[in-house]
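User: What would this chain look like folded?
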Amino acid sequence: MASGGYRPPANPASVSGPGALSQRTDSPPPIPGDGSYGDTKNMTAIQSGAPMSPSPSPGIPMPGFGDPSMNPDEPVTAGSPLGDGAGPEALGSDPRPEEVQRMKRWLPQLQLMAKDPATPQSVKALFEYIRGA
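Assistant: Here's the prediction, encoded as structure tokens.
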């Protein structure tokens, strides 16, 4: 039997009682953390002190499948160890494996940043690199 944590409503969704018996039927999503003691409390305190960012600006629209390339002079194999263009060496030296493991604890925060259109491409690339390691 599971205890604690987010529990999605039953199907159909649970319904609150009337008046004084009413209760919320939803729960806030869990706060990411590494699971150590006090981590949720610390993360909540950090988040409550941080200013909210403004609504994301539209930024660069995503190209459609049939749209022309945004980098016409770059080979499609750029970044790959095979083919034309700069290979993985252009990214610099790989961090030590234990360092990558320590960086994985920041994936939830990096994922939130990677979804923001205003986030620099380098941060998005870091997120993808750590996630794939």
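Helices lie at 39-49, 97-103, 107-115, 121-132. If you want, I can go into more detail on any region.
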